[in-house]
């Protein structure tokens, strides 16, 4: 990725890979000075363009997804924010490593992240309940009443309507396990 994206453009890239358990990641340090046969050149300020960062992140996501697919994984990554992807979720914040100097900030951000995750769970539960309620509603089909061909042949009181599905709210309850008095 670095050779395709950065080195091919004339940049010098220093890559440091951290194979931390649960958080493998890398850091890429780029020089603003290009390099050629004569050594380092003048600073190339066009590499500071924020638009480049977007294309670099897209390139990174494309390469990672290609390797995930090659390894047989179905999961994919996306370099865009939740907001840009149309996902109505609050993102968590980076906590960072605990040091003697940032204990208060780490605890504060960790607590914020816990609250964000609880809100996500509640939102997911609410969506699932709304979906279950929508599925439990009887499905009524409305026939046009202007044509005699669609007029009901029975009286309205005799027309059978579908019964709403029962939604079991207590998942631990098993029918037949209620106590007998």
Protein traits:
181 residues; alpha+beta; two-stranded antiparallel ribbon; 35% helix; elongated
Q: Care to describe what's here?
A:
This protein has 181 residues and is α+β, with helices and mostly antiparallel strands. The chain has a domain at 86-135. 35% of the residues lie in helices and 14% in strands. It has four helices and four strands; from the N terminus they run H-E-E-E-E-H-H-H. It has helices spanning 2-5, 50-70, 82-85, 103-136; strands spanning 13-20, 23-30, 33-36, 39-43. The strands form two sheets. A two-stranded antiparallel sheet has the order 1-2. It is elongated and about 90 Å long. The model has no long low-confidence stretch (mean pLDDT 81).
Question: Helices and strands in order, then pairings?
Answer:
Layout: H1 2-5, E1 13-20, E2 23-30, E3 33-36, E4 39-43, H2 50-70, H3 82-85, H4 103-136
Antiparallel strand pairs: 1-2, 3-4
Structure described in brief:
By secondary structure, the protein is of the alpha+beta class. The protein is built from four helices and four strands, in the order H-E-E-E-E-H-H-H.
Strand content: 5-15%
Mean pLDDT: 81
Annotation, overall tally of beta strands = 4
pLDDT < 50 runs, ≥5 residues: none
Number of helices: 4
- Major beta sheet, strand line-up: 1-2
Radius of gyration: 29 Å
Overall 3D shape: elongated
Q: Main beta sheet: strand number and arrangement?
A: 2 strands, antiparallel
Structural class by sheet pairing and helices: alpha+beta
